[in-house]
Amino acid sequence: APRLALVLGDQLSFELASLRELNPERDAILMAEVVEEATYVPHHPQKIALIFSAMRHFAEALRQRGWRVLYSRLDDPHNSGSIVGELRRGLEQLGAGEIHLTECGEWRLQQALCDSGLPLVWHADRRFFCSREWFAGWAHGKRQLRMEFFYREMRRKHGVLMNADGTPVGGAWNFDAENRKALPRHTKAPAAAGFAADAMTREVLRLVGERFSAHYGSLAGFDYPVTHAEAEQLWQHFLDFALPAFGDYQDAMASGEPYLFHARISAALNIGLLDVRRLCADVESAYWAGRVPLNAAEGFIRQLLGWREYVRGIYWLHMPDYATRNAFGNTRALPEFYWTGQTRMNCMRQAIGQTLELAYAHHIQRLMVTGNFALLAGIVPQQVCDWYLAVYMDAFDWVELPNTLGMVMHADGGYLGSKPYCASGQYIKRMSDYCGDCAYKVSESTGESACPFNALYWHFLMRHRDQLRGNQRLGMVYRNLERMTEERQQALWQRGDQLLARLDAGEML
Ligand code: DLZ
Ligand code: SF4
Known about the structure:
Blueprint: E1 4-6, H1 17-21, E2 28-32, H2 35-39, H3 45-64, E3 68-72, H4 83-94, E4 99-102, H5 107-114, E5 120-123, H6 132-139, H7 147-158, H8 199-211, H9 228-249, H10 266-270, H11 276-288, H12 294-318, H13 337-340, H14 346-358, H15 363-377, H16 381-391, H17 397-408, H18 425-431, H19 452-463, H20 465-468, H21 475-483, H22 486-504
Parallel strand pairs: 1-2, 1-4, 2-3, 4-5
Helix pairs in contact: 3-8, 7-12, 9-12, 11-12, 12-17, 14-15, 15-19, 16-17, 19-22
The structure holds ligand DLZ and iron/sulfur cluster (SF4).
């Protein structure tokens, strides 16, 4: 009997293990646009459009290579609405014996497939440096994990930025301290690479516009690569124009500059349009050729070879329990303004507004603005995770969940990262130009016009003193707190209480 290979919307790679296994002469591929995948969280319309358009382009490319592709469009009258349902239909239609598939990125779908009773043959996803098994072995017996040690192992194992004698290039593993410059005034980011929608993409945009108009986020600004060739253009654009300054300004934020020196390749990479090994090799070559400084090359490689692989390992090691963690016992609902951007806090308005417009924000906006606020305000981690999963073009559970639940919310109790990334308005002021145009005063902590981040920061530290006081990396912060007068501490606590009460009342901040 012929065999059927499933290719999911985030598996658009010719190198996929399940494809290599099959024979285009006899076997067939199934791809399906389904309402269940598009709505398990209210994905940003641009994210749905990206995936559908990239799927259609990939199906076309597979056909050109001689494959038979069964492709279910969202508006096909027989579409059953789920991946499992479409596999059943495909199996029948083809009279196929086995379904070959590559490990899913999300536990949820993998579980649904395992529960389906379908005749499945699984293949490992080889699009990563580190296998699930290798990671489990590395993590075994460790009570806490540290990205830095994992990253060093990966550098050694894969020989990335290493000297012949086994020492790291430049004499240090990590140049993070050189990745934190604020943007000098009037610095212009390079012009973004643009991608015109072809007929196939325009049709998808129409479909998504009709079917998912209830999801938050605009479709109008869609400007994203949907093929391997376009993703390659975006990548080359980054190498040529943005990578040299990426290291210095990796943590900077600026009004009206959504991309700055970031590559914005994460969505293309996560759906299979780019290959992570190639990206790291290109960046290393650019360094050896003297085209980019070491803090840029190392900083970029750390994100891919370090963080990205590290969080994937944690996800597969600890799902499904990991998703339920809530170490601070948060109970507050996600404020409505996360979905609308309607807040007087300029930093939040900028980060959320840009997210609704582009389905994109860079890592410091996600970590230190919207994430930091959710941490300080004690929002239920699962609601924060669902928000990130919905609104970002590149968000898939395996990468989004550990980043949000572990790194942003510290809800795993410090398993993934050694300290919560809590910060007051001073951090945002230092790293951005947001505070100058804000209705609040960043220099004030109490009183009606004081920056909410300030009192909430101290409120957070006071609220969780028992849990956090012993954390070495917060020692100085707590000494500062304890040096404050009793009245000052009281005033901060009250202002924090008042802000949280407003959130609970559904008021805008
Ligand atoms: C995110 C997404 C969306 C919006 N739509 C589809 C789809 O219609 N068909 C599909 O195969 N995949 C889609 N995806 C990506 C899947 O949700 C993703 O492959 C799994 O969550 C990873 O396990
Ligand atoms: Fe954000 Fe506070 Fe600065 Fe306003 S003053 S932009 S709320 S950090």
